[in-house]
Write a structure and sequence with these properties.
Length: 452
Amino acid sequence: MIDSPNFTNKGRQYKTVFFETFGCQMNKLDAELSLGLLQEEGYRIVDKPDAADVILFNTCSVRQHAEDKVYSHLGALKMLKKKHPEVIVGVLGCMAQKDGESIFKRMPHVDLVCGTRMFSRLPELLLNIKNHGSHVLAVEEDQIVNVKRAVTYRPNFYQAFVTVMRGCDNFCSYCIVPYVRGREISRTIADVKEEVQALVSNGCKEVTLLGQNINSYGKGLTGGVTLGDLLSELNDIDGLERIRFVTSHPADMSRDLIRTMSRLSKVCEHLHMPAQSGSDSILKRMRRGYTVDYYRDLISYAREWIPHISIASDFIVGFPGETDGDFQETVRLMEDIRFHNCFIFKYSPRTGTKAAELEDDLPDGVKRARNMKLLELQKSISLEENRKMIGKKVQVLVEGASKSDPNKLSGRTRQNHIVVFRGSRDLAGKLADVMVDEVTDLTLYGKQPSCS
């Protein structure tokens, strides 16, 4: 355990931490877990690096851009570290797991490199640095991840991420996740349910279940447990209003799970299921394990059983060997499915993956052009679909004040539409009906039916 607060950076007697997270929801949850642990040890969270005794970056390695951004941030801290050598600088998460000791060689002023399985030991690691000096490396791969959390710490009081499994066994050819997050390990239903009940008792109304490949939930557990079984158990918790889950892999998404979703009142009508490409030849090279027709059939089945479901997706453009024809097939898939929203990325090789052995043969300019075309197409589709919502009443779980306009409230529909409207602050955490009267491609705007 860390001893009583006695850091004296710039004359202060308390301990402070600046924590910045890059990447996916799993990283955001790891940040919550880490900050909860540090708060229990007496740390106060600050929003500026130069106000902190400890500066931590929770990193992502899925794309090169995310890594470059972290190294840029680290480089900017050299002068601060030179002026205040007692400040601890740490790199956590996927990039730490992947690059390990090489981070110290590239950035000697970094004190801590903490991998994806070691963040639960963060207070102990910081104490080690304080007592014995810098360059502490903690990237053990066989460490059992402790997902116990302080349920009172979460960015949004009415919502929470909950890890139900970690790791991935799919080994898609472009993806670094199995190498930095390890193999799939599921938590028991009892363990997850206990955490969700504790969150609800603390005021949480909505949970999002997380797993790198959440459709494989149950692997390693006895009794043939499935994600549908977990959803059914959580659906019975009094006080819980909504349940979401991400991310779904099409090859592991079962029709039985879709039918289960359709009958559970608290499971939201929203499915994030990355297609990655609309070309069978690219999907095969990506080792995704399904065809475009299979993906289309799965979407049709979901819409048949859950008529108001919204579908979100991910796409990678510029994968090795992607022809103009392959790209046009992706365009057609987007036009046909009409996704609620999409995350679209340029391909970047990840060292250690199978795709890194392929020639990265597309010029960056071509990748950029394809990326922009898909972004513009999705923006157009989202705007057209959102316009259909004008004049309709939607139910919103109110999260609190809108970030864009503090005088208005913000929340989400069950289909994951962002809604901004005028209303009383005491609606936070409650379900409210909103009449939509204006939209953008990202947001619905409206007012409560009783308002003039």
